[in-house]
Amino acid sequence: MNLQSMTGFARAVAEHDGASIAWEVKSVNGKSVEVRLRLPQGFERLEPAVRQTLQKRFSRGNFQATLTVGRAAGQQVQPVVNEVFLRDLAGLAKRLQDQFGVAPATADGLLSLRGVLDIPESNETEEVRAALDAAILSALETALTGLEQARQTEGEALRSLLSGHIDAIEALTRKAEADPSREPAAIRERIAEQVRLLMDASANLDAVRLHMEAAFLATKADIREEIDRLKTHVVSARVLLANGGAIGRKLDFLAQEFNRESNTLCSKSNAATVTAIGLELKAVVDQFREQVQNLE
């Protein structure tokens, strides 16, 4: 299956019975499907259907959809101005200006007041309205198909980037696993050196007990479990990428696990070389997680 980014934009236009229809839809990152609509006055009735359509096609993202409907000259509804009320308001505004020095009223300001301008209901029949609504929703489907394609194009680019990050995580994991500091001979030498230093500092210490304590600490510092878990997470991430679909949340969980293991590897490390590998691993994991957060 294809991967989808949560970022995309699309536009679709259509004509219906002399009316022009245009949809613009865009999406950005989001934890779930959140929709903001901008519909012309009189088309608020379409909001439930538009939201339902978006929620059926996508599983994550913040969406903004804008509808524009242009009517032919003969179809446009003419606004009605309450001229008596407008004249009274204009007179009141003039008196306020003369008496109190307030700013003069503007035409658009007066017309925006409730009761001055009225847009009457259209005389179109239920059948005509239903046909227009169907054409608008059909244009929306076209726009969402374009948005889906845009998100998939970016998703496939992200697949390549994420695959590269996973390869890097695997390579660093194997590098830590093969580090010479993890060889039994190196561990024995390190324990012996620690015991010698302590014995030199105080001749009263029990050498056998010191060897036991040093061996115990060395065992606690072993990174075998972290390496095994990192390898397992690498396999899981590759399976998810290969299967595709809406895997953003699952990959984000794996990114957190990668981060946890790399942190533990650094904290348990008793060799500068392994610490350096752990820090490099953390940097790659941060890049991986940043990209994952763009996926649906």
Automatic annotation (TrEMBL):
Q: Which cofactor does it need?
A: a divalent metal cation
Q: Which NCBIfam families match?
A: YicC/YloC family endoribonuclease (TIGR00255)
Designated name of the protein: YicC family protein
> According to the lineage, what is the superkingdom?
Bacteria
* Matches recorded under PANTHER family: UPF0701 PROTEIN YICC (PTHR30636:SF3)
Residue ranges of every copy of the Endoribonuclease YicC-like N-terminal domain listed in the record: 3-159
Family membership? Belongs to the YicC/YloC family.
- Keyword annotations: Endonuclease, Hydrolase, Nuclease
Which Pfam family, just one, is annotated for this protein? YicC-like_C
The reply on keyword Hydrolase is yes
In which organism is this protein found?
Mesorhizobium caraganae
Pinpoint the Endoribonuclease YicC-like C-terminal domain residues: 184-296
